[in-house]
Every structure is written in structure tokens, then in C-alpha cells.
Write a structure and sequence with these properties.
This protein is mainly beta. The chain is 9% helix and 38% strand. Strand 4 (74-85) and strand 5 (90-98) form a beta hairpin. 39% of the residues are buried.
Length: 266
């Protein structure tokens, strides 16, 4: 009998109904960043998945998350509320709590992308990257103790980033391939995490990692299997606050996600 692989992302974003409009989730330490806390995109994916369970429509279309406090490994409660149920879209809200304190609030709109039949036009093109097999893994020979999220994702770049070599380039932009390290294929629920899974682009300015205050992601298409091509840019740094824009294309060259986050230097 063929066994079905259960991937870490699916295990660690699962939530269980715990009463009317309430779910519980077990946050794990497999997604920790340099701060010692779970990655913000991972927390967002947990909340979006709970909202997907609650929604009558299958596909997250847009989600905005406000990060109020750091999450920690352990149980979290997620309270969900339908704000509006329409024929083509529905909007709902999730509030994630730990130890009686709200750590994350998400507003998301869902749709059925298979039924979207309006005009389609894209004026942006996928980055012109060599195939992943032709590129290098920037973390292949580097130990990152405690940064367990680095074990969850694979990257391929044309050359290692300057900050990793102690020589920040001064250019806070990057293009690269990315995928789950355990072979899990991308889907819409995983994209809030993947959009936040790379190192902050401001590290190429010689800055330390930053903390996300708010992240919004637009989900444009259901992704095809395979590697994802990513383009990330930061253009403005003001008083320690900066934005980071991320566009993601699937292996077929289709734009599947666009995100922007506001972050603060730590």
C-alpha cells in the first residue's frame, strides 16, 4: 500500500475546531527565525488556513496580517468571524491568541479562482533566471544554529548574497528560486509563508534583520508544481521603517502572488 507523505508545513499549520468560530493550533519551533520566535509568514499561514476551513469559498484571494506580538511554540487559539458572505467573494477575520494575549490579526477575502473568468492581462515578466540546477544553494555550507526556518526551504541564487559574506552589496533587491525542502508542492495557503521565507532585502544595506509589522498578500493564481521564481525589492527606508515587495511566479511562468510588508529594523 502506498503511504501518503505528511509534510511539516501541513502538520504545523493544522488547526482543530474548538467550539463555535474557534480553532486551536499547535505552533512549533520548526519555523523559528534569528529572534528565536516562529516566522511571521508561518503564523499568517496558520491563520489563513483556519479561515479557509471556515470559508464557503476555497481560495484565499487577499490577506492582510498585523503582527501584534511575537508568537511562541505552543498552543494558540484562533477566533474567526465572517464579515461578509457574497456570491463571488467572502471576507472574514481571524484573531490569534496565546496566553490570553492577541498576537496576530488577519482579514482575508476568499474566492473560487477556477470560476474567475474575467479579462486577464499581465504587464510584468518573470525574472530571467537560469534553471535551479545551474545555480547555487547559498546555505549549502553554512550553519545557522536556531534558525530552523532555514531547514524548511531551499533556495537557488546566481551568487551568494553579499551580507552572507560580510560584504553587503548596497542593493536591497534579489531574484532567486525557492521551494519547500521536503518536497511539498506550493499551494495558495503556503504562499503567505513563502513570501516571508527569504532573508530581508535590507540586509544588503548592512542592516540587521527586521520585524514585520504588517503583511498583505494578493494570491493571483493556483500555483503549478515545482520551483518558484521570486523577486524581492526594498526601495524606501525611513526612520527605521521599510517596505519589502515580493512577486512570485510558478514553474510555468505564471504570476501567482504579490506581497508587500511594512517592517521595522531591530
Amino acid at each position: 500500500m502506498q503511504q501518503t507523505t505528511v509534510h511539516h508545513f501541513d502538520q504545523d499549520t493544522r488547526s482543530t475546531p474548538a467550539g463555535t468560530d474557534t480553532y486551536t493550533a499547535q505552533l512549533t519551533d520548526r519555523w523559528n527565525t534569528a529572534s528565536g520566535n516562529p516566522n511571521g509568514g508561518y503564523l499568517m499561514a496558520v491563520g489563513v488556513r483556519a479561515l479557509q476551513q471556515h470559508s464557503e469559498l476555497p481560495d484565499p484571494l487577499v490577506a492582510s496580517a498585523f503582527f501584534l506580538r511575537p508568537g511562541t511554540p505552543g498552543e494558540a487559539q484562533i477566533h474567526v468571524e465572517t464579515v461578509r458572505q457574497g456570491r463571488r467573494t467572502s471576507t472574514s477575520e481571524a484573531r490569534m491568541h496565546q496566553d490570553g494575549k492577541e498576537i496576530l490579526r488577519i482579514v482575508a477575502t476568499f474566492a473560487d479562482l477556477e470560476q474567475a473568468d474575467g479579462r486577464t492581462l499581465s504587464l510584468a515578466t518573470m525574472p530571467d533566471l537560469p534553471t535551479p540546477d545551474e545555480l547555487v544553494d547559498p546555505l549549502a555550507d553554512i550553519a545557522l544554529p536556531g534558525i530552523t526556518v532555514a531547514d524548511r526551504v531551499e533556495y537557488r541564487v546566481t551568487q551568494p548574497p553579499g551580507w552572507l559574506l560580510g560584504q553587503p552589496s548596497g542593493d536591497p533587491s534579489m531574484t532567486f528560486w525557492m521551494r519547500f525542502a521536503d518536497g511539498r508542492e506550493p499551494d495558495l495557503v503556503s504562499l503567505p509563508f513563502l513570501a516571508d521565507a527569504a532573508y530581508p532585502a535590507v540586509m544588503e544595506l548592512g542592516e540587521l534583520p527586521s520585524a514585520t509589522i504588517e503583511l498583505t498578500i494578493h494570491l493571483r493564481n493556483r500555483p503549478a508544481p515545482g520551483w518558484l521564481a521570486c523577486q524581492i525589492n526594498t526601495r524606501h527606508l525611513t526612520g527605521g521603517f521599510h517596505e519589502e515587495d515580493c512577486d512570485i511566479w510558478d514553474s510555468q511562468g505564471t504570476l501567482i502572488a504579490q506581497s508587500r510588508q511594512l517592517a521595522i529594523l531591530q
